[in-house]
Amino acid sequence: MQLFDGRIAYPEITATLQRRDAAVFMSTVIITNCTNRKRLGGQPPLELCTAQNQSLAATAATWIQQVKARTFTRPAESLYTGRSVQDAKWVARKLDAELMFASTGLGLIGGEQPCPSYNLTVAAEPNSIRPWLARMGLTPSDWWDAVNNHWQRPNPLATLAKRRDINRILIALSANYIDLVANDLEQIATDDRSKLRFFTSRPGIERLPKQFRSLAMPYDDRLESSRFAGTRADFPQRAMRHFVELTNASTNPVSADYQAVSAAMSALPLVGTIKRRRASDEEVKALMIEAWDAQKGSSSRLLRYLRDDALVACEQSRFRGLWLELKSRSMLRSIV
């Protein structure tokens, strides 16, 4: 089941939301952010080349042409990896809901949408588009609008919200991706806002347009003392999963949902601040090598080992680079 039918490489046959078969009933949609962790399938990822004086429209058009020229390797729900994706997929299965991704490179796409391998993000990563946007005096939302306009589906979130066959939209996005879709959210009609529930961090709530902040569920650090503990990067999706297990995503008014989450958080203790020491890249890699076999080379387990057992501070993008380096070494040793 796809909201946008056909290959994204051919916008002339890419269906808009309104053209989806009206006979198919769908009451709930899950929207989560894409991830920098992707199954690339051995193909070098597509990267954006920005000309210093090129306009937003021209840069977006160039990017879309690059995307069209690439082979589409995997559906979105298989391309993106990590805990956040797994929790979003769990929620979608639990509710028999449509899973969609807010993608910096591709706009709003369905989980079954074929995608090329690419590296482009709005997060604070090496392949982030934020520095170029800042130099141009633009915002992440300007990029989102340009990309979706090129796919001939402007304001896809607002279009989704006005659908009468959809009565609930659960949106789990990091603060950076709230920035990405902010303009689109502003286009949602007042009467359609009650369908939405947001799951994000405290900074994410502050970055929501003011009229949507009351729709953000009041999750905080107390979630880390529950069985839904995890990393900062997957906090929105973990909160959404907790919410679905708590309420089964009923059609309760927002006030009832807000009160249910507040009560659940009140029942949890605050997690004490853990002091983690800083370590050099070489020391972090040595710790990872030491624990590699015990953690079966799992990136998520090794990160938790560093933070919880070794008590070493390691930001996720930094860890990712070091882990990929060690994984490459491991693969080379297995070949030799």
Automatic annotation (TrEMBL):
This is Uncharacterized protein.
